[in-house]
Amino acid sequence: MTVMEAVLPETPLNSRRFSTRIKLQDHVCVYWSCAGKDDLSPIRNLSSGGLLIESPRRPVVGATARLDFLVPEGRIRAEAVIKRLEPDRGVAMKFTAVHENDRLCLAQFMKRLHRSLL
């Protein structure tokens, strides 16, 4: 049995958002599965609370998805819920759980992305 931990959002500084979005400049993709269909999609932006992916697919809002992406920091596996569909942009997902062993990789990945924007 795989251990999963709930994702807790960061405290906002001067924003209504719970976490800061990082727009990805590099072409980073995520492999995701939802409603029995698998896909590989580029990530448009990422935060500790979720991500926006580019995809022509239109899953049902509220459906759950399994995410699996491999970045230099390591493998990151997570579960998410489809929050909204953005016309001409993609699918917005909110993390519901990240595998316990992958949390550090996610934090390091986001830290590297944030540094690259400075």
Protein described:
There is one protein chain. The chain has 118 residues and is mainly beta. It has one domain: Thrombin, subunit H, CATH 2.40.10. It is 13% helix and 48% strand. It has 1 helix and 8 strands. The chain starts with a strand and ends with a helix. The relative contact order is 0.22. Residues 8-18 have low confidence and may be disordered.
CATH architectural category: Beta Barrel
Got a strand count? 8
Helix proportion range: 10-25%
- From the spread of the alpha carbons, the general shape counts as globular
Keywords:
118 residues, Thrombin, subunit H, 8 strands
Describe this structure in a few short sentences.
This protein has one helix at 103-117; strands at residues 4-6, 22-23, 29-34, 37-47, 50-53, 64-71, 74-86, 90-99. The chain is mainly beta and 118 residues long. It has a six-stranded antiparallel β-barrel with strand order 3-4-5-8-7-6.
Question: How are the SSEs ordered, and which strands pair?
Answer:
Layout: E1 4-6, E2 22-23, E3 29-34, E4 37-47, E5 50-53, E6 64-71, E7 74-86, E8 90-99, H1 103-117
